[in-house]
Recover the amino acids of this structure.
């Protein structure tokens, strides 16, 4: 039975980044507060005969401003009180909700622009300092998000994945999966240094444009010479350029789709099996590892659990049928097929 991919929340709504800068957001809140104050002062001035000043008996305009401000921000001191039914109803039904609204505006503003920003900054700084052996994903479009889903399905904790993108909605989707996110340009040294690229275990690049992906590869490679970099390119002519830029693995989704389509013409189940191998949710999966000491001297076909299909010796690939695969040597890299079904050894 195939496992469902790790997705974000099922309930999705349209969202758009606010076009207003911070000063404008603060400005409209202040305008709203002032507008409500002016409204309350005007009504209290009109209804001033319904107010009683216990100090001197007369209610001036200053007294109205004082009473309104005290009523809205606190419960009042009792020196000026409403005495008519209409004024009392206005204070009970209008001024009291305004007071609650004021509190919500002040608390919301303080949380949005002070506490949350300070907290998020402090938390992100702690996360950045602790980043090690993580996976950096540059580009969270269709291919990038599918890659993150598959990485999580393979058992990597979401908190060990850092997503870089310039689109806020894409970052929100990545954040909903539990990944750390950074809004920025992955072609810049400063951005990659912020995610500690030199301490990362691997990097996945899927920028959507070949030139951008290759530039990201160049930037990452000069900052982290030993980093494993996987990059997606769409133009076959750019595959060599991506490798020259420092990519460890170059994936061409267009060519891969063509291979699947061509293979399916020679058998109805070939494409299905290849998809099984590529996905963590299939019955079989491909794995890569270094040969163990006990396996040295044995043929590739004698692996205990997996089905060996290829070895890499000094960077050169050898198939299971070639003489080099008949005796494994220290340092060999093995590519094998392993079962993912509950039935150990089931390679069907």
């Amino acid at each position: 039975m195939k496992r469902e991919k790790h997705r974000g929340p099922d309930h999705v709504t349209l969202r758009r980044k606010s076009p207003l800068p911070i000063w404008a957001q603060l400005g409209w809140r202040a305008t709203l507060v002032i507008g409500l104050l002016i409204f309350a002062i005007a009504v209290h001035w009109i209804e001033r005969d319904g107010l009683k000043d216990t100090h001197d008996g007369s209610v001036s305009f200053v007294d109205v401003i004082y009473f309104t401000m005290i009523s809205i921000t606190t419960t009042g001191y009792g020196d000026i009180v409403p005495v008519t039914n209409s004024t009392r109803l206005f204070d009970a039904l209008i001024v009291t909700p305004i007071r609650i609204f004021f509190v919500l505006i002040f608390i919301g503003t303080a949380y949005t622009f002070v506490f949350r920003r300070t907290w998020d900054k402090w938390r992100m700084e702690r996360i950045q300092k602790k980043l090690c052996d993580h996976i950096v994903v540059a580009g969270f479009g269709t291919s990038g998000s599918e890659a993150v889903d598959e990485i999580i399905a393979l058992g990597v904790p979401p908190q060990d994945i850092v997503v870089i993108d310039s689109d806020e909605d894409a970052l929100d989707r990545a954040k909903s999966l539990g990944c750390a996110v950074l809004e920025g340009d992955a072609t810049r040294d400063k951005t990659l240094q912020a995610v500690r690229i030199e301490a990362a275990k691997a990097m996945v690049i899927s920028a959507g444009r070949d030139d951008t992906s290759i530039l990201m590869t160049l930037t990452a490679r000069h900052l982290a010479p030993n980093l494993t970099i996987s990059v997606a390119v769409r133009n076959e002519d750019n595959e060599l350029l991506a490798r020259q830029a420092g990519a460890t693995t170059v994936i061409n989704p267009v060519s891969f789709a063509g291979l699947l389509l061509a293979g399916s013409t020679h058998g109805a189940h070939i494409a299905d099996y290849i998809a099984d191998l590529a996905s963590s949710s299939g019955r079989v999966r491909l794995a890569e590892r270094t040969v163990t000491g006990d396996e040295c001297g044995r043929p590739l076909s004698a692996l205990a659990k997996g089905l060996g299909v290829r070895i890499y010796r000094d960077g050169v690939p050898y198939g299971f049928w070639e003489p080099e695969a008949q005796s494994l040597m220290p340092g060999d890299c093995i590519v094998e097929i392993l079962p993912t079904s509950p039935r150990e050894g089931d390679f069907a």
